[in-house]
Design goal:
By secondary structure, the chain is an all-alpha fold. It has ten helices and two strands. The protein has one domain. Strands 1-2 form a two-stranded parallel ribbon. Helix 4 runs parallel beside helix 7 and helix 7 runs antiparallel to helix 10. The longest helix is centred in the middle third of the chain and has 30 residues. It comes from Asanoa ferruginea.
């Protein structure tokens, strides 16, 4: 690849990440510094996902849907820049049972040890208290949480795995550095939750990046990530909160 082409590709990667999860990673880094320098210990602070945006229910719903929609715009940009994303990322319906089966298997393989890591991080005091959902108990809350879970999965797996891994390999990066970059980025934008969240998501990033490199299919990762977030968001919203006291 010519020097000019490599420079343009580096700039493209930085722009895509700067508009999406790279930006989130910077904000997350600032947030963890703020948490560590606050009066209360990290273990006594709270990180809230899916918060309510307004006391007016239908305005809140509007904000939620707009947030989900615009969070997916960087995905459209990444797919456009990949030129032929269906063949590059496996975003097709040719292997539905493969995608679904591996998605469920990956969700189980990541989710069950993840619960153990959350417990250990809570005991060590290296995570903030996580509130996966704080929406009002209205008819639209569960559908919005499911859409939010799907949005997270589509954004993260297409940008951080499919797009980033493909582009870094185009730059000629060695496999180990490609996997490390994807995994560290994934961990970094979860750092606002604490160091346990960083470590757990970085490990997940290694597994997902290696799976994509081996199979060239991102759909199983989207399925797995969606299932993990649906269980976390909807489960927390519907089940008695006393069940989660051990976390």
């Amino acid at each position: 690849m010519r020097v000019e082409s490599r420079t343009r590709l580096r700039a493209e990667i930085l722009i895509v990440l700067g508009l999406s999860l790279g930006q989130s990673a910077i904000y997350s880094l600032v947030t963890i510094v703020a948490r560590l320098t606050a009066a209360a210990p990290l273990s006594q602070q709270t990180a809230t996902l899916n918060p309510s945006q307004s006391a007016r229910p239908y305005l809140d719903l509007t904000y939620q849907l707009l947030g989900i929609f615009f969070a997916l715009v960087p995905v459209a940009l990444a797919l456009y820049l990949l030129r032929s994303p269906r063949s590059l990322l496996g975003l097709d319906a040719r292997r539905p049972w493969f995608d679904l089966g591996w998605g469920v298997a990956l969700a189980a393989a990541i989710g069950l040890p993840g619960l153990g890591l959350v417990f250990v991080a809570a005991q060590l005091g290296i995570n903030a208290n996580l509130v996966p959902a704080a929406l009002p108990h209205l008819w639209w809350a569960v559908p919005v949480l499911i859409l939010s879970a799907a949005q997270n999965a589509i954004l993260e797996e297409i940008v951080v795995v499919g797009y980033l891994v493909t582009k870094l390999r185009d730059l000629g990066w060695k496999l180990v550095w490609v996997v490390a970059a994807s995994a560290v980025l994934r961990g970094s934008y979860h750092l606002y939750q604490g160091f346990g969240a960083f470590l757990g998501n970085a490990v997940m990033g290694v597994v997902f990046a290696l799976f994509f490199i081996r199979t060239r299919r991102v759909l199983p990762l989207v399925v797995a990530h969606t299932l993990l977030d649906v269980v976390a968001f909807v489960g927390y919203s519907l089940l008695p909160h006393s069940w989660f006291s051990w976390l």
